[in-house]
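Bit of a strange request maybe. I'm writing a small parser for structure token strings and I need a real example to test against, not something I typed by hand. Could someone generate the tokens for this chain?
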Amino acid sequence: MTIQRHVQRQAVDQPAAPPWWRRAVLYENHMASFRDGNGDGVGDLPGLIASLDYLAGLGIGAIWLSPCFTSPMLDQGFDISDYTDIEPLFGTLDDFDELIEQAHARGIRIIADYVPNHTSDQHPWFVESRSSRTSPKRDWYVWRDGKPDGLPPNNWTSEAGGSVWQRDAATGQYFLHSHLVQQPDLNWRNDELCAAMLDVLRFWLDRGVDGFRIDVAHLLMKDPEFRDNPVLDVAAHNEFDVQHADFATQLHVHDRMHPDVHLALRRIRATVDEYPDAALIGEIEAMDWSQWAEYFGADLDEIQLPFAFRLIETPWQAARLATELSALYAAVPAGAWPVLALGNHDRPRLASRISAPQLRVAAMMLLTLRGTPMIFYGDELGLPNQDVPSERYRDHFGLSQGGASRDPIRTPMPWNSEANAGFSSADPDRLWLPVSVHADELNVQAQLARDDSLLRLYRSLIAQRRTSAALLLGDIRLGWAGSPAVDGCLAYERLAAGDRKVVLLNLTGQPLRVPAPEPAIVMMSTHRHPRSATDTIDLAADEGVVLHVSAEAGS
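Reply from user aminoacidic:
Good idea to test on real output. This should exercise your parser:
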């Protein structure tokens, strides 16, 4: 069954509504760990379909699917051996079509994952490419001769550790792999490869997907001269990332972010624009905000929603967050719109980075900032990292010497207090990954039963966002008019015609007295009932509030 996109056309004399991706709350689904529908211990498409009512009740407008295409599963689906079929672990094409139909019936869009930088070494393209130096697909991948002494072509290091180059004994050349050895990089400087990859987009758009998240979008073009990266005297370890230590030993200026990447991204965007209303989300590594903003495109013709990873990697302090947010919004080009997240499948979970009481404050921040919020599955429950013994590793990045596994971030979604937290009916030792030791309390059923749970707070915040013009699409101003800064309090206001909201977030474990606009009411608190606000408001420890400011208040 092929599902055709339903396009609602605007009357010529009617102003276009803001695109759906500015209004939606997005949800990152890690397929293997979300819900098992057939009892084999692995999350799958039927399990996700069975969970759509939960996501609709949460208020989700679009689901980003982790890669669910045919794969050896060495990198949890990011090593693709067939871009146009479904990995049997996850289901079938019919299941995928059913997901599209059922999600759309609930007003939920589907964002597929697009992995354009590399394939599995089992992909037929690479099998043919490595068959001989004269293969018609040789140039679809990046092949280079070694140095005269037989060493790799340059010093670039892989995110999985060691060199990015692997010598192929049959043909005597090296192929490039920015990740695992089994993930050879595609050559986006080859027009035939580009055309084939653009057809992949059309295949899924024709089936009804509403857009794509582009994996490592900054990585598609490398230095054509293959110059060495500068080596660092002291490794630049990133405490917020999970990577092999080798990767931090050099400045990655030639193996990524080459200016030509924008040519490739414009070709991708032009293809997606053939389908009205489709959108692109881009995985852009943490970088200077001015560099990040370039991925919108000089004419806003590249990625509609480039990820703001620096926000995830900002220490949880009011002053540091205010500085980053100010720089972020200053860098966003006129007419552009960011996507914001506090969690991701490659970063330690939010609940393992900040204190449990601050998770409520973080939820309020994410869902009241200007931009499209992205919730990482399980963050709405306060799910922390879960230790995974090495013999249970699924992430092959963690299997190399000195490697780091991301499996603790990706353990199963807890649904209830039954066996395996309701994730699967399989025997526990057959589960994709072990369930959280906190699953008895941090599960969907338990939190829906409590009015004061974190999950209930997420639902309320999403509902408030949807009904407030200021919170949904309004402008943002850090601080608020006439307010002095208060140490430990992150304050900002959201403004739209006829609607003004002020958000005050206490990022400390101590009470704070904070100036407040008048007249105003506390329309929402992270853990207290609404109350009136005079010219000051007493914030409890770890409390966030949203104030509704009367039209009579000064601005």
